[in-house]
Amino acid sequence: MQHKFLIHKKGDHVGVAVAEIAAGEVVTGVFMDDGSTIQVRANQNIPFGHKVAIQAVEPGGVVIEYGVPIGQAPRGLAVGDYVHTHNLKSLRWAKS
Fold first, then answer.
1. For a tag on the chain, would you pick the N or C end, based on fewer CB atoms within 10 A?
2. Number of domains in the chain
3. Region label for 76, one of left (φ > 0), alpha (ψ between -120 and 50) or beta (otherwise)
4. CATH number where 72 lies
5. What is the band of 91 on the pLDDT scale with cuts at 50, 70, 90?
6. Does some domain include residue 43?
7. Which residues contact 73 (CB under 8 A, 6 or more apart)?
8. Are the beta carbons of 48 and 17 closer than 8 angstroms?
9. DSSP secondary structure letters along 27-68
10. Which residues of 56-72 are buried (b: 16+ CB within 10 A; e: fewer)?
11. 0.85 cut: is pTM over it?
């Protein structure tokens, strides 16, 4: 089975599309740290290089990628959601 997204580390909330993903498509992702796989159904179209949620995140919850927090999901995320600037607030510019 061909994979359509990669997940950097176990525990990450998102994977990165390595091909275009269509809304409703069931796609396979590969964890880069151990080679295991996961399947999700895309809730929206996900462009190449963009993120797909592989775990649900509560409203206001922190989103993990590369094993570190990368942002906050103000409205939360469902598995299969397209994750980008419309639903992810970067932590890069957050004040300490």
1. C
2. 1
3. left
4. 2.30.130.110
5. confident
6. yes
7. 57, 58, 59, 60, 61, 62, 63, 83, 87, 88, 89
8. yes
9. EEEEETTT--EEEEE-SS-B-TT-EEESS-B-TTEEEEETTE
10. ebeeebebbbeeeebbb
11. yes
Please check whether residue 96 lies inside any domain of the structure.
no
Q: Which domain holds residue 53?
A: 5-90
Q: Which two tokens stand for residue 33?
A: 């740290």
Residue 95 forms part of a structural domain: no
Helices (H) and strands (E) in the chain, counts: 0, 9
Strands 82-83 and 51-53: antiparallel
Which pair of structure tokens corresponds to residue 61?
A: 């919850």
Side by side, the strands of the sheet bearing 68-73 are 61-65, 68-73, 89-90
pLDDT digits (tens, 9 = 90+) for 29-76: 999 999 999 999 999 999 999 999 999 999 999 999 999 999 999 999
Task: Please return the burial class of 93, using the count of CB atoms within 10 Å of its CB with bins 0-12, 13-18 and 19+.
Answer: exposed
